[in-house]
Amino acid sequence: MEHKTILLVEDNPDDIALTLRAFRKNNIRNEVVVAHDGVEALDYLFGEGSYAGRDPGITPEMILLDLKLPRIDGLGVLKRLCAHERTRKLPVIVLTSSEEERDIASSYEFGANSYIRKPVDFDQFTETLRQIGSYWLTLNIGPPQAERA
Fold first, then answer.
1. 3-state SS assignment for residue 33
2. Which of 46, 52, 60, 62 is deepest in the core (most CB within 10 A)?
3. Second CATH level (architecture) for the domain 6-148
4. What is the pLDDT along the chain (149 residues), one digit of tens a residue?
5. Cβ(93)–Cβ(113) under 8 Å?
6. Distances (CA, A) of 30 to 20, 33, 72, 90, 111
């Protein structure tokens, strides 16, 4: 699991810290790139803005995406990823507090691979991230990098 990058798209500093702490507690030692809003996430994925010069062909193993983000929300990020051949196969796990049916339906419509409501309890949150890491970083066999590039 060491060489598989995770893109965490989250604007809440407490949720970022909680996620990183849960990863450490579960011995998930992957590099985690944090994007604080939808624009930063898209810049990272497409090698634009502050990430100009980064090779966009090197993609994260998975994206943990909150929906309620500034500048471009999570659904906007999903729409853009789904619209591009190079990014439409990236595994995107929506990790959000929203229970809105329209958010769930739209997330899947725009290409999310999974929709998980953030547990409020730290132990439950830690267990959720353990399961996400176990499945998406260990068990799941995604498309080869060449197909995602």
1. strand
2. 62
3. 3-Layer(aba) Sandwich (3.40)
4. 446 899 999 999 999 999 999 999 999 999 999 999 999 999 999 999 999 999 998 899 999 999 999 999 999 999 999 999 989 999 999 999 999 999 999 999 999 999 999 998 999 999 999 999 999 999 998 877 655 55
5. yes
6. 10, 10, 26, 17, 24
CB atoms within 10 A of CB 101: 8
One-letter amino acid of 8: L
Look at residue 143 in the predicted model and tell me its pLDDT: 77
CB atoms within 10 A of CB 31: 12
CA-based nearest residue to 39, from 76, 92, 86, 79? 76
Q: How far apart are CA 64 and CA 77, in angstroms?
A: 12
Question: Model pTM?
Answer: 0.93
Please provide the DSSP assignment of 46-73 as one string.
HT-GGGTTS-TTS--SEEEE-SS-SSS-
Kindly tell me the sign of the dihedral angle through the C-alpha atoms of 12, 18, 21, 26: negative
Provide the residue ranges of all domains of the chain, joining segments of one domain with +: 6-148
